[in-house]
Design goal:
alpha+beta, Elongation Factor Tu (Ef-tu), domain 3, OB fold (Dihydrolipoamide Acetyltransferase, E2P), 4 domains, seven-stranded mixed β-sheet, six-stranded antiparallel β-barrel, 4 helices, 23 strands, elongated
Length: 358
């Protein structure tokens, strides 16, 4: 019995030591921290956008058919009036031929009616034909004239219908996308290709409703491209949409680039930095909104305190906050400038937990 009890105590000791070893082996949790700061009058915010030319045109046919000619490839430079694509246009050509036949028939009828009118008028003037015969001949000629004019308009319309099966470049530009292939059946209005018109570059981006009221045309901007490393470009806001885009729930904004580099191409991802006037008076203390949590005791943050060796610990700190602005919460009490607060995973942080700031 003593031997069994001793073995049990030994096992408990091993298990206890194992728990301590496991606890000591837990690495510090990585977190993100930001400093508590004061309002300086202007707030910098960054947004993602895409480089575009000043104007883009979706090229499409105005009639349906099979693509028989396609003279566009990605990146191709095209000139105004250049033929880019053409349809077989069988139905339009048949309709044109029928319209031409109708015009020939109408011309023949009009000539016959004219001769009959001239003959009847001569007889009427000589007293051989009656007034009613003269008027009937005149009316028949006028009707034939109207039918001929209508047939001429029909031919013109069918000629335009044939042209609807051809796409000519509306302006000088660069082909940015090609959406069809030869022998593909297309419908009216279907996008065949995308044409970038002009050489000026703009950045298209979307701003959230929290800052759109402070965005105005003429605002200065700084633009960076991941594909053009080490360069920052000056820009200016040129357009601010008054309505939200339902697809992105943001307000479309365009920023022009001053002196763009030849390395920048349409479609490149861009980061646009805008400086907004602060909503709070200069010198007011603010804390990032995502750093503030709330429980039954009120609002709190996790202060990040240096523990040496590249590690830190967190401490729960009650705070009193005021207005929520684009810069964050206005701090009324509980924090000082320069203190660091955790800004992610507040629900899983524990008092005194070891962390590593990324």
């Amino acid at each position: 019995m003593k031997r069994f009890l001793g073995a049990g105590v030994f096992l408990l000791g091993v298990v206890g030591c194992g728990d301590e070893a496991v606890e000591e082996a837990i690495p510090p949790r990585p977190i993100i921290a930001e400093p508590v700061s004061t309002v300086t009058g202007r707030t910098l915010r960054s947004f993602s956008g895409t480089a575009q030319t000043g104007r883009t045109v979706n090229l499409s046919f105005r009639s349906s058919g099979v693509v028989t000619e396609l003279n566009v490839v990605l990146g191709q430079r095209v000139a105004r009036g250049e033929l880019l694509a053409e349809l077989d246009n069988v139905s339009s050509r048949l309709a044109y031929e029928q319209a031409v036949l109708g015009l020939n028939s109408a011309a023949s009828q009009m000539n016959t009616a004219e001769l009959a009118f001239q003959r009847t008028r001569a007889l009427y003037e000589s007293g051989t034909a009656s007034l009613s015969e003269y008027e009937n001949a005149r009316n028949a000629y006028r009707t034939a004239e109207a039918s001929h004019a209508s047939a001429e308009r029909s031919v013109q319309i069918q000629e335009e219908q044939i042209e609807y099966g051809r796409i000519l470049a509306p302006a000088d530009g660069t082909i940015a996308a090609v959406n069809v292939e030869i022998d593909e059946n297309v419908s009216p209005g279907q996008a065949i290709a995308l044409l970038n018109v002009g050489s000026e570059l703009e950045i298209a981006l979307g701003l959230p409703e929290a800052v759109i009221a402070r965005a105005t045309p003429g605002m200065e901007a700084t633009v960076e491209f991941a594909a053009v490393a080490g360069q920052r470009f000056r820009g200016r806001v040129t357009e601010v949409s008054p309505s939200v885009d339902p697809a992105t729930a943001t307000y479309p904004v365009r920023v022009s680039i001053d002196g763009p580099s030849e390395e920048i191409r349409p479609g490149m991802a861009a980061t646009v930095e805008l400086a907004f006037e602060s909503e709070l008076p200069e010198g007011v203390l603010v804390v990032p909104a995502k750093a503030v949590g709330e429980n039954a005791d009120g609002r709190f943050v996790f202060l990040v305190e240096d523990a040496g060796g590249g590690e830190a610990t967190v401490r729960r700190q009650s705070v009193t906050v005021g207005r929520l602005t684009g810069e964050g919460f206005e701090v009324v009490a509980g924090l000082q400038e320069g203190q660091r607060v955790a800004t992610a995973g507040l629900q899983t942080l524990l008092e005194g937990q070891r962390v590593r700031v990324r």
